[in-house]
Specification:
The protein is mainly alpha-helical. It folds into 2 domains: 55 residues; 74 residues, no CATH class.
């Protein structure tokens, strides 16, 4: 899970590095062709980062589901949202998919589910926290040990 999160962060930073020279040059000296190339490179790298963003949600959702530290709805929405990120990444290989209305509707629904899962988990952890469950206490009243 940590590898996927680190990979996604690294890819996002690489994408932002494509736009950094544009911010440094100011708006007056930007060649339109250079701008188009930089923005397209940024979009490609950001699309690649989507797969890492989706893949880390699967183990995170599984851990939340197994630990029962948060509602199961949040865990399931994390895992379903991971499918949305991966589906967005798949449109890079089949651009015609993105033109299909059904794929766009399903992709939007999965994207909203991902946001509900991620933000819902953040709010849950801020409000409730992940309290540790204590082991059940043993009954100290042992019939063999009678007080004097």
């Amino acid at each position: 899970m940590l590898i996927f999160a680190a990979g996604g962060t690294a890819m996002s930073l690489m994408g932002l590095s494509e736009l950094l020279p544009l911010a440094a040059s100011g708006s007056a000296g930007i060649d339109p062709v250079t701008l188009l190339i930089r923005v397209r490179n940024y979009q490609r790298v950001l699309l690649l980062a989507q797969v890492f963003s989706g893949l880390w949600l699967f183990p995170f959702g599984w851990l939340v589901l197994r630990s029962q530290a948060a509602p199961r709805l949040l865990a399931l929405s994390l895992m379903v949202g991971g499918c949305g990120y991966v589906m967005t990444f798949a449109t890079a290989f089949a651009p015609a998919l993105n033109l299909n209305a059904a794929v766009r509707i399903v992709g939007t629904a999965l994207g909203v589910t991902a946001l509900v899962g991620e933000f819902g988990m953040c709010v849950w952890l801020l409000v409730k926290g992940a309290a540790l469950r204590s082991a059940p206490e043993k009954d100290c009243r042992d019939p063999a040990r009678q007080p004097l």
